[in-house]
Amino acid sequence: MRRYVKPTIEIMEALPTVILGFLAGLWMAPFVEKHLMFLFLMLFVMPTGILLFGFMSRKFPAKNTTFSLSNRFIPVIPMLFILAGFCQVLADPIQQVLFNGDFRQYITQEWGINYNQRNALVVGFAMGFAVIPTIFSITEDAIYSVPKHLVNGSLAMGASPWQTLVGVVLPTASPAIFSAVMIGLGRAVGETMIVLMATGNTAVMDFNIFEACVPYRQTLP
């Protein structure tokens, strides 16, 4: 799994920020505006569904499963698509019942929250594609750099793999993980091109994640 996942994540890091900003402004912004309810459902349904699936998978005896410990992630892949389809099916009925058929117009008219197509939410999605590969790559190297004798010693003393991960591996790799997070945050601060293109060249930021704020030309006297 590591041979396939790590090169794929590192390829994401090679994408130029101009391309990410271009895609965020011209493709992702209209998509988010059209499927806003679907994305908000994904934020709640996807983590909950994955945790429930992991909890239920522990109830099945290992001898009755065809997946070993190293490839138990395989059933999670179709589960992600099933949860995404479930959110897509529920999006329109929830909008019809709770938000008068359009979630975007509802929050504007009823809650007074202005929605601009190029907003901070779109910037957050695009910034994640730029920052996550850096954090993932350094963190993965730090975790696999933990000496094997520490892991083997913990397992030999009777600790479970999860207890070994939480009590031995993560504390040992925590300085490098902290450095990875700080490097990722530093890159996020410096990614001006994504912010410039995904927010429509705005000068003043707001706490409203759905608004792109006032254009710079309107702030001039």
Structure, described:
The protein starts with a helix and ends with a helix. The chain has one domain. 71% of the residues lie in helices and 0% in strands. Helix 6 (120-144) crosses helix 8. The protein contains ten helices and no strands. Mean pLDDT is 81; it is low at 64-68 and 214-221.
Residue-averaged pLDDT: 81
The percent range for helix content is: over 70%
Radius of gyration: 22 Å
- The CA-CA distance between the termini, in Å, is 58 Å
Point out poorly predicted stretches: 64-68, 214-221
Q: What's the overall geometry?
A: globular
The helix-and-strand class reads mainly alpha
- Helix count, per DSSP? 10
Count of domains: 1
What is the ordering of alpha helices and beta strands?
HHHHHHHHHH
Q: What share of the residues does DSSP label as strand, in percent?
A: under 5%
